[in-house]
Amino acid sequence: MKLKLAIIAASLALTSMHSGAAERIKIGAVLSTTGAASFLGDPEYKTLKMYVDSINAEGGLLGRQLELVSYDDGSDANQANTLTRRLLFDDKVDVVIGGTSTGATMSMDPLIERAQVPFVSLGGAVVIIEPVKKWMFKTSHTDRMAAERIFDDMKKHGISKIGLLSETSGLGQSGKKESELAAPRYGIQIVSNETYNPKDTDMSPQLTKMKNNPDVQAVLVFGMGQGPAVATRNRKQLGLKVPLYQTHGVCSDEYIRLSGDAAEGVRLPCAAILVGAKLPDNDPQKPVVTGYAKAYAAKWHSEVSAFGGGAYDALMIYKAAVERAGTTDKAKVRDAMEHTKGVIGTAGIFNMTPENHLGLGLESLRMLEIRNGDWTLVH
Question: Membrane-crossing residues (predicted)?
Fold first, then answer.
């Protein structure tokens, strides 16, 4: 009888060990793979899928395979909230990556904070990380950083009075606020201040006001998705000759495709990923961004974007934190993420602290200009 019990116990122990070894690390994601923000969300999803498969092929993380559990919010912040509940309470994921937009991110965060799960946002606004939220981190440059980079460039070119056209979305409205706060520090005055709805298909009325204002020396569009491309085309149609600046919300070849030749001469701050091959050989980001670009193009037969790069950064920051913590325990991984140091990503070199859940410097935003339908690095 004792022998029989011992055999049963050993069998149960082996079963338990086998079950534990087979348990997958669940990577949860809520992304905008359809809808107005799809040209951001689609490369984010493809990037996560590609690198989850790649990590698994190399033996996984801590000897365990990863499982990507991803949902499409259709570019709807309310839907993002609903899907986050599913990730947290049904799927019981170990980490959440997303949302694609600031609006989606902010709708997701209260649920995630209560559930105490590490969360890496791909949204752009500074409100995502200010004030600091315990479980929320971020990989995209902030709207404040974008505004400061743009205003610094404007100042160098003698521009002191501008028109601001901002989207009535999370990023657009946060970007409007940050632009209004930052402009005076650079000696810049916003003399025309207009907004547009993300679904607007014509922004001629707002741009006509700017064209008829003799003080407007340049136009800054703060938005994401298709809206900025509409504004770019409308500007050319109206014959508005002053320089046009966009933000990191359109750092994708899709923006150039949607804008056509109207994008010629547009200046904007973006992550280095769009000009990886043009970086100096001694730039520490060059191997990372060129390696990512090569892998993405080979897998998906399309060009890279800063948005897909943000998803890569999010996954690699989580992976590095798990490796340092030696566990997937959520609290320990969160603590490790908060002390991320020297992780080279597509957006820059991440150095996080308890007071800074982004950890990127302003120098990580590269100033680009679109010339002959391509990205050019300017200084």
Answer: none
